[in-house]
Amino acid sequence: MNNSYYQNPVYPNAGINTTNLPNQQAMPTYDQTGSPNAMYNSGLIPDEQSYIENILRLNRGKKARFHVTVPGSIEWQDRVFDGIIEQSGKDHIIVSNPNTGEWYLILMIYLDFVTFEEPINYNKEFYLPNT
Predict the structure, then answer these.
(1) CA distance 60 to 62
(2) Over its length of 131 residues, how does the chain's per-residue pLDDT go in tens digits?
(3) Distance, CA of 67 to CA of 103 (rounded, Å)
(4) How many angstroms separate the Cα of 119 from the Cα of each of 41, 44, 45, 57, 122?
C-alpha cells in the first residue's frame, strides 16, 4: 500500500528508472523574443503540440458546447456548458456565455468532448509522418 502517495507517488510500469514518467508533455518552443506563446499567436502549432488545449486555442472566439462529467457528484455528474471559447490552458478552458453573462472555468480533467456548430480550425497535417 502506498500510504504516502502525495509525497512519494508510485508510477505503474515506470520501474526504477523514473526519468520517463507517464503523461509528460513536450516543452513549449520559444521564439526570438523569448515568448512561449508566439507560436499560438501566429496560428501555427508544432506537430508535437497537437493537444486539445491547442485545438481550442485555434478556435478561440467560436461558440462551442462543452460536455463534462464530475465523478462522485450528483449535481455535476453530467453537465453541458454553452459559450464562446475565450482562453485555453493545459488544465483549463475559460468560456463566456453571452446569453447569461456567466463565465465558466472548466477543468480539462472533467472534459469529455466538445461540439461545434461550425467547422473547426485544425491542421490535419498534425499526424502525417515527417518526411
Answers:
(1) 6
(2) 455 444 555 555 555 554 554 454 555 554 555 455 555 455 555 544 568 998 999 999 999 999 999 888 888 789 999 999 999 999 999 999 999 999 999 999 999 999 999 999 987 655 445 54
(3) 16
(4) 20, 18, 18, 14, 9
**Torsion angle of the four alpha carbons 18, 20, 23, 24, in this order, in degrees rounded to the nearest 10:** 110
What is the spatial distance between Cα 130 and Cα 125, in angstroms, rounded to a whole number?
9
Total-model pTM: 0.59
